[in-house]
Amino acid sequence: MSAAEEALLTAAGLTKLYGARIGCMDVSLDLYAGEVLAVVGESGSGKSTLLSLLATQLRPTHGHIRYRMRDGVVRDLFTLGEAERRFLWRTDWGFVHQDPRLGLRMGVSAGGNVGERLMAVGWRNYGRIRGEALAWLARVEIDTERIDDLPTTFSGGMRQRLQIAKHMVTAPRLVFMDEPTGGLDVSVQARLLDLMRGLVADHGLAVVIVTHDLAVARLLSHRLLVMRHGRVIETGLTDQVLDDPREPYTQLLVSADLRG
Amino acid sequence: MTDAVAYNFAYLDEQSKRTIRRAILKAVAIPGYQVPFPSREMPMPYGWGTGGVQVTASILGPHDVLKVIDQGADDTTNAVSIRQFFARTAGVRTTTRTSEASIIQTRHRIPEAPLAEGQIVVFQVPIPEPLRFLEPRESETRQLHALEDYGLMHVKLYEDIARHGHIATAYAYPVMVEARYLMDPSPTPKFDNPKMHMSPALQLFGAGREQRIYALPPYTRVVSLDFDDHPFARTRFAQPCALCGERHTYLDEVLLDDRGGRMFVCSDTDYCQERRTTAAPEARNERR
Description:
The complex is a heterodimer. By secondary structure, chain A is an alpha/beta fold. Chain A has helices spanning about 45-55, 80-90, 100-105, 110-120, 125-140, 155-170, 185-205, 215-220, 240-245, 250-255; strands at about 10-20, 20-30, 35-40, 60-70, 75, 95, 175-180, 205-210, 225-230, 230-235.
């Protein structure tokens, strides 16, 4: 099998128990380069637990995740050392939080936020770091004159785009997104979705996006994973699942969506 | 002398001194690494040099000659009281001359006169963690040190340049020790950073409130962080010292009156004094 056909990330039997409670149960999935996978479900269905497991922020009770590193070697993520894990986090991966305060340094200028990853991987030329930051601000449609402004002076939509720029600067291959459009008004959401679609297309990104907004899932994702009570109850191509849901619960979700 | 009898030698009890010496040995073995130590209550408030005093108390012997400076001066309150403290509790000889001292406890400065092998400089440190204001969690900063993950420090320097056009950090300027540990040189002005590099003297850093000791053994490589296109630059002064005429020392601004009168003089009082006594006639002529 060639590298292109091989999955970027493979999870098998992921289970997280919080004592007797189920965080998520026996989740298996494959994710390929250039593919956007949406995880949908109501609050408490285990979406965020699954995302934290995939992003190695949580250790699973059972199961494992294999990831194809940049050098082509497939590694079990939970056997990585802390230094390797962090290196992955700040080079090959991005994580876009719902609350930009978690993903940005609010006391550091926009340029400093975008440059942080570059400096972390050893860039030591101020002019080049700044040039890269300017290019990425322009790419995510933030006025480049705002490069020295603090994110606290940015609107919600701008903060979210800055968060994306901050993570894209090291050309990651995999980006995790946790409700990235939550709390934004519809027109700002639309621009953000547009940007994300462009980035996925241009950079061949793989994305795992957690959302409860089926419209976002329909616009952005190729495949869909429906979760309930910590288990995956339905999975398939996004259009197929949303247009012709098999499970009663998915049917309920789709029919409950006002724009569906 | 009756005071000295009332205390153990150099105030601290022997067990505490041993513990602190063990921390110092570990710190010397791992240059730039912050070693935790059980800081004792000292008869002075935190922020007045309790860390430095404990380090000095632990390494002091009866034949040592002690010099204490505060901002380079031997005659400021903090320097005078710490010098008297050890004169009374340890009965050691004290001096204001850099060349005569075997131990120099300092707040903020490294003497201008070159140090020699066998001398020990003890720094009083308020905040030992260089990443503290960037990352408030101690658990996280320890991880960052362990993994040598220091990109964050450059973010601070980046911000400096973005805001001021140059690296505006003028004191507590971060350094890399032996290309491994990021270290805060305590609130010394960056003017003194190059003196730490390959110094023949042993340099010990004590932070009393934060309970940390770190060290630079003699001849340790100490490099100030910078960018390729914004290299580290030592502070320069436009004028020479108004008293001794020296051009290559760190100067303090002294206000003379309330009409804007001021002069700039060496912050190292001993060095300035020395120059004026040896080269007095010329210096006076120069000023006329």
